[in-house]
Amino acid sequence: MSQLHEYSDFKHFLVSSPSEYVAHVEINRPAKLNAFFEDMWVELGKVFDKLSCDPNVRAVVLSGAGDRAFTAGLDVKAASEGSIVSASAGDGARTATQMRRGVFEFQECITRVEKCEKPVICVLHGISYGLAIDVSSCADVRICSKDTKLSVKEVDIGLAADIGTLSRLPKVVGSFSWVKDVCMSARIFGADEALAVGFVSQVHESKAKSIEAAVNLATLLSSKSPVAVQGTKELLNHARENTVADSLRYTAIWNSAMLQSNDLKAAFMSSFQKTRPTFAKL
């Protein structure tokens, strides 16, 4: 595994390359269970903005450093001293405006994981509370270890989750009843339950095995046409948010441009010749 030096300036995230065209991003605050404070979520957005445009990256694995947690969520002490929670008392409309701007900024930083053009595979392990659900719901694929303990924790600190879980989780899993169950109760649920409802697609014995599986999947995705993989992500995300008719129209417009790629010819030729195709950087 090699470090990606162009990402070495980030303080709270380690970015390495376990295989060609694969980036591994680790939340790097293990002594505090990878809990987030404002500088971290701002930096997370910057990391994924950079990965999205990096031609040397075709797939991303996201995990948490250390053995205990993917992330325990929001660092409540730091948040209580930050710009969102500590909006000055006084005129209600002005206080609300200040808080709303802060929440929008927080939401947008997390949403950049979803907006990343490259497929993102999230590996959950250990404590995965609150913001862990917000972030992982933005990923394209979720994998977890058997020790994972998950919770939509915000109700227990006196608020409705506002960074993305309540908007995305109902679209990730098949049961709205289950979503309301875990979101309103803030109860802890495990890997088997997460697999049963479709929140994760794989469960492995350990964090190490989960990361190995994620890297293997990312390596497989990176071996395929980046035009095809990134286009598939774009079209699936569009289909999730729009009608079938609108999605079919968007697909036709998208592919009228992307079918002109040399990747199509390379894939066909390799199929006939029984060889492995190579694709130019995108």
Give your account of this protein's structure.
This protein is of the alpha/beta class and 282 residues long. It has two domains: 2-222, 2-enoyl-CoA Hydratase, Chain A, domain 1 (Alpha-Beta Complex); 226-273, Lyase 2-enoyl-coa Hydratase, Chain  A, domain 2, CATH 1.10.12. It is 49% helix and 16% strand. The chain contains eleven helices and eleven strands. It has helices spanning 38-53, 76-80, 92-115, 131-138, 165-172, 176-185, 191-197, 207-222, 226-241, 244-258, 262-273; strands at residues 2-3, 13-19, 22-27, 59-64, 69-71, 120-124, 127-129, 141-145, 149-151, 189-190, 202-204. It has a seven-stranded mixed sheet, sandwiched between helices. Strands 5-7-9-10 form a four-stranded mixed sheet. It is globular, with a radius of gyration of 20 Å.
From the helix content, strand content and strand pairing, which structural class follows? alpha/beta
* Strand percent estimate: 15-25%
Please provide the count of β strands. 11
Shape, per Cα inertia axes? globular
Stated plainly, the CATH topology of the largest domain is called 2-enoyl-CoA Hydratase, Chain A, domain 1
Oligomer: single chain
Helical fraction = 40-55%
Level-1 CATH class name of the largest domain: Alpha Beta
Number of helices: 11
Low-pLDDT residue intervals, each spanning 5 or more residues: none
Distance between the termini: 23 Å
CATH architecture of the largest domain: Alpha-Beta Complex
* Mean pLDDT across every amino acid position: 93
> What's the CATH superfamily of the largest domain, by name?
2-enoyl-CoA Hydratase, Chain A, domain 1
